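A quick aside before the break. I want you to see a complete sequence-to-structure record at least once, exactly as it would be stored in a machine-readable document. Don't worry about memorizing anything.
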Amino acid sequence: MTSALTLTNVSRQFGETYAVDNVSLSIEPGQFVGVIGRSGAGKSTMLRLLNRLIDPTSGSISFGETEVTALKGKALRQWRRDCAMIFQQFNLVDRLDVLTNVLIGRLAEHSFLSSMAMQFTDEERAMAIRALDRLDLVPQALQRAGTLSGGQQQRVAIAKALVQQPRIMLADEPIASLDPANATLVMDGLKTINREDGITVLVNLHTLDTARAYCDRIIAMRQGRVFFDGTAAQLTDDVVRDIYGIEGLRDFNAAVTSTAVRSAVPA
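That is the input. The structure line, written in tokens, reads:
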């Protein structure tokens, strides 16, 4: 059964500031959605609300008939399994090998003692290898995660999320610290999973070209609110100027140019 992910009048307040302000959205199953906006626009907060890493100040989040904002205990842990989160900082254990890091994505299915002992079945190990194979990482399976490049670590994080067998993947700025070549590998991996598995993907992005190239739908946030919701073709230069503002767009373009120059300089 397919279900839509729905936010209804969702707000999250920190002190006097609304990081997310009265947002209502419906994300249909299987969509690849990019979320853009200036720093502080509310993008990361919105993803953390969806995963229930933080709770809304008001409003509700639902997935089909499930009221996500009401989940507690085991039901909440199951939701975090179904709604996998991929972070900019990778969230891997550097001293463990790649295969074990991916298998950590299966811990939600284990008892406390089994989790503590890091005991995994042969079936789970095969699942992890298949996930690594999809992301071209099998040769690195027994390598310590801390020895990999940033792009490789982010693809390990995607494999770790994939073995959770989620229905939704959330990715918070997954390519912000990567060079263009590795950013392409990461985005290609997410898009392939979206197309082949039908998993809904929401990804926060800091580059417009990436959003336009990969996303079926683009949501732009400004000061905690949804400012634009449409296709890449509808995201015209005039709309972009309204989203970022003239000063913000100038800073944005300067940051993109600086990143491109850095990536072109040999290490």
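Two observations worth writing down. Residues 5-92+167-246+259-264 form a domain with the Rossmann fold fold (CATH 3.40.50.300). The longest strand covers residues 17-27. We'll return to this after the break.
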